[in-house]
Design goal:
By secondary structure, the protein is an all-alpha fold. The chain is about 70% helix and about 0% strand. Strands 1-2 form a two-stranded antiparallel sheet. The protein starts with 13 loop residues before the first helix and ends with a strand.
Length: about 500
């Protein structure tokens, strides 16, 4: 651990410096990732897009993040957060510039799809923060990282429409979006020059394999393969959305080629999972080195409902307020930002409550509140006063984002050397949720959309009964063969 053991948010040294630079990096990734949502109407008018094409861009914006989070999680575990986060910020500035320069739906769609890669940045910071903070501060630290970073979407909604107006003209939105790419490029160097993967003298534990997640029992092997399926299903759903049955961006031949490619990729991944884990069928893993993959599976489902719904709602909320209450684009963006604004306190709050009162009890309460919150959102209509609708969105947002904080207060306590991979898979499920929810939105009205999210939250509550509270210690093997025990609870 850092020699500076104080948790002082006003400090910018030791572990606190790493925490602040991490949430800043995450904040910038979210500004870039969601710079499109508050400028939907300007982009639609400038490029002459249909409503169906706009909704397709929203789905494309979160689709690529599904495989990206898995890949980035593995790379982070292998090469360390410093180089991976810096590289991600620099490289993803390029599709940001490309979208700002787009003059057709196809160009915009390709750039938006590639920009989904920047959404994987979240995973990197989860591993980095877990290296610098002890278990009794981890939920709070991860909550601050996630909550303050997530606020980037609110900052984008609040500032970019105004910036576009200030730049002026039909191309004002292009300059506003391009500016976010410049910020990402500059901060990549700031991050690289000021962050270390671990405190001085600490070991950075790496996974045994980069190609597949390790499991420690036969049952977990099967469960891992099952939990991989929804990620491929979401990508297949996106492909269908781009087919002639959807927005007709791709031909039937191309779509069938994508389906086949996804099937072959899944079979290849099955072979890699077998290659890495076949030993569990030959001999049992020593008890001290075991972890329960069902913990990961439950967290995946919860993040599907929490972060998946947040991504979907952040993407559609400006349009929802504009159409429901006949607001201007700037006013709709500002009002909608109230939902993401709650990230500043809610996600850190969820992590802090988890640190104090336990991971599972916290998740049960917050998931129940999440279901009730979205049911309330489903009641909103044009007869409501705008301020009451905003209050309802903020109340719902509290449970959504506190739930996210509680999920990632638990992720680093499962298996340290695999934290990036676990965070990658759980994070990817958030994007699977977003793709599913946004696809549902393309077929139903706003009320039904909110009710569907509420129903999945109820399923998440049921799944939680399967989860176990993290207790005791986890074991990791040093390069010299010795074993390090890492506390995951005070009991």
């Amino acid at each position: 651990m850092s020699t500076d053991n104080r948790f002082n948010l006003l400090s910018f040294t030791g572990k606190m410096k790493v925490l602040h630079l991490s949430w800043m990096a995450f904040f910038i990734t979210f500004v870039v990732w969601f710079n499109f949502a508050p400028l939907l109407q300007s982009v639609k008018a400038s490029l002459g897009l249909t409503t169906a094409e706009i909704k397709t861009l929203l789905i494309l914006n979160v689709a690529f993040t599904i495989p990206a989070r898995v890949v980035i999680g593995m790379l982070t575990d292998r090469f360390g957060p410093r180089i991976i986060y810096s590289g991600l910020l620099a490289i993803c500035a390029l599709p940001c510039f490309a979208f700002a320069l787009a003059d057709s739906f196809v160009q915009a769609a390709i750039a938006r799809f590639l920009l989904g890669f920047i959404g994987a940045g979240f995973v990197v910071g989860i591993r980095l923060v877990s290296e610098w903070f002890p278990h009794n501060e981890l939920g709070t630290a991860e909550g601050i990282y996630g909550g303050w970073g997530n606020f980037g979407s609110a900052a984008a909604a609040f500032t970019l429409p105004t910036l576009a107006v200030l730049f002026g003209g039909e191309d004002g939105w292009r300059y506003a979006l391009g500016l976010t790419g410049v910020i990402s490029l500059v901060f990549s160097w700031v991050f690289y020059l000021n962050v270390a993967d671990t405190p001085k003298g600490s070991t950075y534990f790496k996974p045994k394999s980069l190609t597949a997640m390790e499991v420690t029992s036969k049952g977990d092997f099967i469960l891992l393969l099952i939990m991989k399926l929804p990620m491929y299903g979401a990508l297949a759903l996106l492909a269908w959305k781009l087919s002639p049955a959807g927005v007709a961006m791709l031909s039937d031949v191309s779509i069938y080629g994508i389906y086949l490619g996804l099937l072959l990729l899944y079979l290849y991944e099955v072979s890699q999972v077998w290659k890495v884990n076949k030993s569990v069928f030959e001999r049992p893993v020593p008890e001290i080195h075991r972890y329960k993959f069902k913990q990961v599976a439950v967290l995946n489902i919860l993040y599907f409902a929490t972060f998946g719904s947040e991504l979907a709602v952040v993407s559609m909320l400006p349009l929802f307020f504009a159409e429901t209450f006949a607001l201007t684009p700037v006013m709709a963006g500002m009002v909608a930002s109230a939902y993401a604004f709650m990230n500043l306190m809610s996600r850190p709050g969820g992590g802090w409550i988890s640190d104090k009162f336990g991971r599972k009890p916290t998740l049960l309460i917050l998931t129940a509140g999440l279901a009730a919150g979205y049911f309330l959102m489903g009641q909103v209509n044009s007869e409501w006063p705008v301020w009451v609708a905003v209050a309802a969105a903020m109340a719902c947002s509290f449970f959504v984002q506190s739930g996210e904080g509680a999920v990632f207060a638990t992720v680093p306590l499962i298996k340290r050397r695999m934290t990036g991979q676990i965070a990658g898979m759980t994070g990817a499920y958030g994007n699977v949720g977003a793709v599913c929810y946004l696809t549902v939105l393309s077929f139903v009205d706003y009320s039904t959309f909110f009710y569907v999210i509420a129903a999945t939250a109820v399923l998440g509550f049921v799944a939680l009964t399967w989860m176990e509270e993290p207790r005791g210690q986890m074991a990791e093997i040093n390069q010299d063969g010795s074993v390090t025990l890492i506390d995951v609870s005070s009991r």
